[in-house]
Fold this protein.
Amino acid sequence: MSNRSDGTFTHVRGELAWTIAEHRSANEAILMVKHLDAADEGQFELLGLRDDCETAVFWDHIWRGVVEVGFDAHGVDNLDEERTETTGDVGKGEYLQNAELEEWDLVHPRHQWLE
């Protein structure tokens, strides 16, 4: 979901913004999406949002685990320092299959087929 201007992921950004606006701040939703979008590349992959969109859930491809961080209009908390959960030998797919995704506020569209 990196900074693409070709419109391919416009629907993803729109879905993120809409969901954040419903739970938190309509005025700051676009800024929050920009920060989530910037963090969603390379080492970290955005899986979804939880806790009334207060928590962003990322997969850390290097450490093979889940990172849960706060975010706001000023940015995403430090992903390297905010590791709250590791999954050990469990891969991303298995983690998502076992997660209670129906309780999340938003599952990233690339994983919604699991719901």
Notes: The two ends are 20 Å apart (CA to CA).
